[in-house]
């Protein structure tokens, strides 16, 4: 449809993949529940950013995504908001425990920012968010995870430590986000990332976000995503 093509062009969005959902113009177009709309307004977000306009409908439709956009473009909300919807869509009674949403980020600082953003939107639903990165003792972290949570925001190394200690199980994890995938590789976390992905059920939804798409990240994406849609905003380096 020409309207959609023109609208994407106006947002500097390029897409590829099978049956890409239409980009939205407003948060209302996403069909969010009033609690989420309230939290969005409270944040002062009036309309979605470019990456959000296209990534939100893709992720809300349950598809895997490769999202490529520069720093500061609003990628966090593009994966946090659909994650809240995904969690609320799960059947209420589940025998399994452990997180439903798992987010990996390369550094403690980045993970902490995501943790704060996730908490803002999770609060209205009583969704529990755990931070899994350096700064808290491993014993404290172990205890917190044992108490249960729906979302884990983690750096790869510390998450592996917690998995080894059996602080959490990945049985109900069905929504995996790899944020700043290029930096994760730059910092040498590829083996840890692969190990974590290998411990999460293959029928999960997988989201990979990156500012650049070097060959190694491209290869990982091809291996761990299913029939992904690629969304690129602006010009992107390799
Ligand atoms: P990225 O992960 O792409 O680097 P962030 O998710 O950290 O970007 O967002 C950058 C800034 O933009 C943050 O301060 C965030 O609160 C803000 N932001 C995100 N989405 C919106 C929006 N729709 N409207 C206004 N500000 C937004
Ligand atoms: Mg980010």
TrEMBL record:
Motif (Q motif): 25-53
Domain DEAD-box RNA helicase Q: 25-53
Domain Helicase ATP-binding: 56-231
Family membership noted in the UniProt record: Belongs to the DEAD box helicase family.
Protein name (Swiss-Prot/TrEMBL): RNA helicase
Organism: Medicago truncatula
This protein's encoding gene: 11432035
């Amino acid at each position: 449809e020409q309207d959609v093509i023109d609208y994407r062009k106006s947002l500097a969005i390029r897409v590829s993949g099978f049956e890409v959902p239409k980009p939205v113009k407003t948060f209302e177009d996403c069909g969010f529940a009033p609690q989420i709309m309230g939290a969005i307004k409270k944040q002062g977000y009036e309309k979605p950013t470019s990456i959000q306009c296209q990534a939100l409908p893709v992720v809300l439709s349950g598809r895997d995504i490769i999202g490529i956009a520069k720093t500061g473009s609003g990628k966090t909300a593009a994966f946090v908001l659909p994650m809240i919807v995904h969690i609320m869509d799960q059947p209420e009674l589940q025998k399994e425990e452990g997180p439903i949403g798992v987010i990996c980020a390369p550094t403690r600082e980045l993970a902490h920012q995501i943790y704060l953003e996730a908490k803002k939107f999770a609060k209205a639903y009583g969704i529990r968010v755990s931070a899994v990165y350096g700064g808290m003792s491993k014993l404290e972290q172990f205890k917190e995870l044992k108490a249960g949570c729906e979302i884990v925001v983690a750096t790869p190394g510390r998450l592996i430590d917690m998995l080894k200690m059996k602080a959490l199980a990945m049985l109900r994890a069905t929504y995996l986000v790899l944020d700043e995938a290029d930096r994760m590789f730059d910092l040498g976390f590829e083996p840890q990332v692969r190990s974590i992905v290998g411990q999460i059920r293959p029928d999960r939804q997988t989201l990979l976000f990156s500012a650049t798409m070097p060959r190694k990240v491209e290869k990982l994406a091809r291996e761990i995503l299913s029939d992904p849609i690629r969304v690129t905003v602006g010009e992107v380096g390799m």
